Amino acid sequence: MSDESIAARIDRLVTEEKELRAREQQDRGDDDSLEADTGRLRAVEVELDRCWDLLRQRRAKEEFGQDPDDAEARGAGTVENYKQ
Predict the structure, then answer these.
(1) Annotated domain spans of the chain
(2) Distances (CA, A) of 43 to 7, 15, 20, 39, 52
(3) Of 11, 17, 31, 70, which is most buried by a Cβ count within 10 Å?
(4) pTM reported for the whole predicted model
(5) What is residue 84's predicted lDDT score, i.e. its pLDDT?
(6) Is 19 buried (19+), middle (13-18) or exposed (0-12) by CB count in 10 A?
(7) pLDDT digits (tens, 9 = 90+) for 10-56
(8) For residues 46 and 80, is the Cβ–Cβ distance under 8 A?
(9) pLDDT at residue 26 in the model
(10) Quick one: which of 4, 5, 2, 6 has its CA closest to 53?
């Protein structure tokens, strides 16, 4: 996966995230829709974190003369529990 394809995926996820946040406001009276949108929003947030992590790995490998294609997407548990 290239940096460009990762960036395109990030763009699509950001667009979906914005749409879901807007829908959350509209779904306040509908518990089922709100629950579904909230669940999807959480999944989108996790996927965004994974994409950003992969992009950072690729750029770091390239910066240090390594093959960026050796970078691998890490699992949600790893990315979400990363200590900064």
Answers:
(1) 3-71
(2) 18, 14, 11, 6, 14
(3) 17
(4) 0.86
(5) 64
(6) middle
(7) 999 999 999 999 888 776 777 787 888 889 999 999 999 999 999 99
(8) yes
(9) 78
(10) 6
